[in-house]
Every structure is written in C-alpha cells, then in structure tokens.
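Internal tracking record. Fields below are filled automatically when a chain is submitted to the structure queue. Please do not edit lines marked as system-generated. If the sequence contains nonstandard residues, flag them in the REMARKS field before resubmitting.
Queue: standard
Priority: normal
Entity type: single polypeptide chain
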Amino acid sequence: MMTTRRSLLTYCALATLPLAGCLGTADPADDESGADTTDPTPTPTPSGNTTDDLPGGNATDDAGGTRLRGTGGPGVTVVDTDTVDAAVEHAVEVVTDAATEDAPPGLRVSVTNTTDETLAVGEGRAVVFAYVSDTAGSLVLLPPEGEYPAEAGCWRLADPVAVTMEYRTRTLDPGETATRELDVYALPGEDACLPVGEYRFETTFRTGPADDGATGDAATEHSWGFSVLLE
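SYSTEM-GENERATED OUTPUT FOLLOWS
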C-alpha cells in the first residue's frame, strides 16, 4: 500500500460524529475561508472507439459507458442539486472530471451569503462538504491538502479518517462566497477502488446573525445536497 500526498490522520470512531459523513482533523491548510484556486485538470480528447481498463479495476464495456482510452476513470459528473430556501446559496461543480494515477476526481463546493447582513454559518467544514460522506457510506469528500491512506490510482481509503469534534463557525459578509475544493475517495470496505454508480451527498447546517452565532436562538437549520455519477 502506497501512501499518497495527503497527510495520514489517526483513526476515529465515525459513528460518534454529529455531522453527516465524517469531519476531518484540523489541518493548518484547512483555513476557515476554504478558498481554493486550483484550475480544473483538462481531460485529453482521445481518438478512436477503443476502451481500456480503468484504474482500480473499474473498466466496463461500451454499453456501460466506459470512458475512452487515455481519459482516465472513473469520471464524475454532477447529476442533481437541491433547491433550498435559505439565507445562503450552495453550488457544486466538477474541477477534476476523472481519476488518474496522480489525483482522484475532484469537486468544488461553494456557499454564498445572499442577504444584506453578515451571517454566521456552521458547522464550518460540513457546510462546504469537507469530510462529508455520501448517504450510502461508499464515498467521502476530503480536502486535497492532506495525505490519506489510499493507493495512488485506486483512491480507496485503507483506514477511516480521524476528525476533531469542535463545532466550527465561519462568518460570511453580504454577498461573500466561501469555496472548498474536495477530492472523491472510496471509504474502507468497498470492493472497487472507486465504485461506479450514483451517489448522494447531503449536509445539515445552521445560519444566524453574526453577533448571535450559528448556534444562537436566532439561528435556523437547513439541509442541502447533490448527487454525482461515477462511470
């Protein structure tokens, strides 16, 4: 097993976490702004109609939608997003559309304060889906700064990822957007490296006036989610 470019974190019991999925340990690079500037990785355009085995044994036949030779795989697409009436607005986009030997598929989640007041939003990591797993418990979204126990090209975790338990709050000024880039990993126990299929991610978050906080009496709770397809 080869350890990738992400920092290995200690084991924790995921069942004790209060948030959807798992929350990651505090990392010096995991600042509250969550701002990332990495450009999407371009996907080469292949010629011909041949197919090739995908990393981690994820190859399928032509009828199953295998990506063409040279494009890597599996690929990720966003297939559905929720519409929620909340003080903040979420968005998700693909930034790395296929797994390679160098990196797993990648997404970018953003949250924008759509009001004319400064807001407190919490929990600060979960609201941008950092360390959140899908509802079926097959995949997890991890910030790209760390090193995680996964083999390059496979991107399936060998062990769970530890998390800190504090409730973080971030503040958003009117119109301000916080973003977080996230890599897609398979959770331990999966047979495939990155199992193909459709997966839903969702999170619960709270918003409130900045002077009262995300957990104050004036705060309100909301949920938002999206679905991705790996193929």
